[in-house]
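Re: that chain you flagged

S.,

Sorry for the slow reply, it's been a week of failed gels. I finally had a moment to sit down with the sequence you sent. For the record, here it is as I used it:
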Amino acid sequence: MQKTVSRSVALALGGAFVISVAGGGSTLLSTALLALLAAFLWATLVIPAELTALLFFTALLLTGLAPDAVALAGFQSKAVWLVFAGLVLSEAIGRHDMGHALFDRLLRRLTSYRGLVWLIAATGLLMAFLIPSAMGRVLLLAPLVLALADRLGFAAGDPRRHGLFITAVLGAVVPAFTIITSNVPNLVLMGAAEAIYDRTFTYFEYLLLNFPVLGFGAFLLIPLLALRLFPGEARIVLPESRAVPWTRDQVKIGVLLAVTLALWTTDSLHGIASAWIGLAAALFCLLPGIGLLPPQSIGKLNFGPWFFAAGSIGLGGVVSHSGLGTLLWGEVAGVVPLTGLPDPAKYAVVQATAMIMACITTLPAIPAVFTPLAGAIADSLGWPLDAVLMAQVPAFVIFAFPFQAPPVLVGLTVLGVPLRAAMRLMACYCLAATLLLSPLHYLWGRLLGVFP
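Prediction finished late last night. Pasting the structure tokens below so you have them in one place:
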């Protein structure tokens, strides 16, 4: 296995550094080859995502395919600092066992399987507002529901066990795509829009457009499908347990998260970017004397997601700078007759384009590849830029395969959910969301004046 990975790394490095030769002196062709290589490595994960990002930066800087400021633009984005804040806050929450403290209190007086599934979904949604890391939420929630299933006596073949686990994973990840601070694709979209178009979306405007239909709709659909596809005996009996009192540090974290969330949701009023609010919260955790995290714990964080976010944003900037995005959309526009289409059909074309990208790559790659195209798409459709940028968000929420969202794949693997069981629910969810949530999202966006 180690030899296979080493060979993959060597091949990737070799491929990156001969791209300028393969491009025959054409900057556009060389950039396209490098972008395809990065997207392929991120999609297949033959090497870690952060290593692909570093490979991408190095290849750009050595070949001179983009100016240094463009190649490294991801590190200047507010989005990467929000990822950093999420890493620190997730570490603090996990260190002080906030998941158990909250979960045990929510379980009191629960007597039905149906109620348990809805509680798990609600817990995942609540965590999405408080913990700005999908992987962190999944890895925090997974052991809790695993222990709960064992306490309830849900055997390995019990459909209720699968329903519980799939609801936990999807509930912690999917609705969060409509909360700008909570998942990597949202942050890449925010960073790429800022780097390419100088457009910064506030927490509140992103939430107002996307959560009422897409986020809340996903929150409703996932438990409903889980209960339908994985039925079982309705009544459950939880062993008696006494909730442990909140510790002093848990109270501190609770207050910190409440203040942070309040500032995020009101950022359109006070004007402070959500990234800087998150950064301040992270630094509060690390300050000596506060007691939430030792200052040296910053060196123990997993910075993989940070480099991955910077690489994804950088890819978008490079594609835009090279003119590749405009060229690609020009080819699509030459095939699809856009001029005579009504606005709802244009929305469907844009969303379908983003969803196809998600099937070929992964969800975090959508905004990195799609956002540079947004300007050309807006011109060809006659739409405002914001409408095109936001039309890709349904493709984050509506997907059918676990590999498209790495936290979903990791969560299902950790919990031992059979792929066939997960695919049953995800395929039904994708179909229902496409038919119901997507049109309603367009109508809601049109009511708000975002979509034409």
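What I noticed first: Residues 419-448 form the longest helix (30 residues).

Talk soon,
D.
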